[in-house]
Amino acid sequence: MFDRAPDRERIAQAAGEAGAGFLGLWLEAPAPTLIARVEARRGDPSDATGDIVRRQFERAAPVAGWRRLSTEAGPAAVYREARAMVEDADLPAVA
């Protein structure tokens, strides 16, 4: 959803304008893993294909300012790591 830098900048700016803390978390996996995941989908509303994933990787630019998380270890591990990152970030409370 935020694969383009201007979109990432806008969401961080919107959080700041709202007085909310913001910590961008960038979930990533190697291209072959993502292609396999997309091609294994059945009955999914997404129109993504392996070719779309390949094109996304071709245009991908380094993600600056967001914490990177590998999804290779599975959802439970990603959850634990993401939660620890958010807790360690000491973000301001939202009223």
Q: Output the helix-strand order.
A: HEHHEH
Classification by helices and strands: mainly alpha
Portion of residues in beta strands equals: 5-15%
Count of discrete alpha- or pi-helical segments spanning 4 or more residues: 4
* Major sheet summary line: 2 strands, parallel
Shape: globular
Count of β-strands: 2
Arithmetic mean of pLDDT: 89
Q: Roughly how many Å is the radius of gyration?
A: 15 Å
Helix content: 40-55%
Poorly predicted runs: none
Q: Roughly how many Å apart are the termini?
A: 26 Å
Strands of the widest sheet, in order across it, are: 1-2
List descriptors:
two-stranded parallel ribbon; globular; 95 residues; single chain
Give a description of the structure:
The protein is mainly α and 95 residues long. The chain has a domain at 25-89. The chain contains 4 helices and 2 strands. It has helices spanning 5-17, 31-40, 50-59, 75-89, and strands at 25-28, 67-70. A two-stranded parallel ribbon has the order 1-2. It starts with a helix and ends in a 6-residue tail after the last helix. The mean pLDDT is 89.
